[in-house]
Amino acid sequence: MINATSKLITSRFSKNVLALVSGAFIAQVISFAASPILTRLYTPENFGLFALFLSYVNIVSKVGTLCYERAIILPKNNSSAYNIAFLSLIILLVIALLSTSLIFAFSGRLLSLLKGAYTISWLYWVPAGLLLVGIFNIVKSLHIRQKGFRSIAFARIGEAASASVAKIAIALFAGATAGGLILGTITGFMVSLAIIIRSPDLFHFAEIRRSLNSKSIKAVAVEYIQFPLYATCNAILTVITQNLIVLVFSIIFSPVIVGLYSLGNRIIRRPLNIMSMSVQNVFFQRIAHEYNHGARILPSLIKTTGVLFITGCIPFLLLMIYAEPLFGTIFGKKWFQAGVYVRILSPWFLVLFAVAPANTTYEVFKKQHMKVFFTLAKALLSISAIWLGYKLTGKPEDVIAYFVSANVLVEISIIVGAIFITYKNDLTTISGKAA
User: Fold this and answer.
1) How many domains are there within the chain?
2) Cα gap 344→39, rounded to integer Å
3) pLDDT tens across 183-231, in order?
4) pTM for the full model?
């Protein structure tokens, strides 16, 4: 494993990961540095409403392009990639309009479900978040295809810096409410999109004009139909599962509990997600290239997963021991309970970090239906675990513990499944070369 780690670090793959992770690290340092200020300006209740807004944006953004933007990386020629990008943009605009209509139609019913504990003015910002995140993801996929990882890194840094400054400024000059957290986040989305879209090498407009036509758009829509059929379903189930506690807690517990949980989860999950997606994006590009050229993929999958797991053990073990005093000291005494929740979540965080390469494998081999099965199992087990924890004790800590146990089990199953399908593919590749 030491030899494998050494080779991985010196590879082009590692350099690309380093570019993304470096940007993610700087972005997280900025966000983390701002967090002790924000937790003293805003209340746990403010963070609870903000968490609900982010959960809705995360959910609708997963269906925003029907996952077609993830297929942009796969075609051998740029013409098909441009047509997929344009198709993704059309779908995004339609779904943004549809979501706006649904919000105006059903906002009253949502307020009733939340039992009046939350205002719903934040809900009208969800379509704006959807559009900004959706366009960013489309452009990001074009960058990944062309190995423009540095542009993505700079965009993440710009998002973190602008969002942090905006949230603090709004609290100081307009008052600290949940709206300040939401508007600050929207500002960050806008800045990150402005940065990533300004690359001079990204858009070759003459080639784009030659490539785009209705026939080609229909062709790629059919060729990559697995993405809306399976990847979208999987993505929605995944993001609902990830945000399930916030959604359920907003109904059964107070906004204060939601805010405490959401801060702890966000402080750890944000750098974790950025680093995991950095690895996943680069690994996706790498194994897609290897797959198109008939190379073996299993060694890359095992090495990368093993390195991520070993690398993640130390920080997450420290979190399990020191989370409570750390949160109380850094963010203020009223946030001590958030550290309790983080300690319980730590085993799940570790497995989520290690599963990143396995998640891409299902898409490269067009086995999205298997991933949907795992994600459906995760959703059902998570709901059952939350219900069981709430019925047995009614304590948030126990609900989270049952939720973590169910999710760790499924994430390990995803890794095992990825190894199995990669092994079968490599056997076919070897047999083909031998013949």
Assistant:
1) 1
2) 21
3) 999 999 999 999 998 866 666 667 777 888 889 999 999 999 989 988 8
4) 0.78
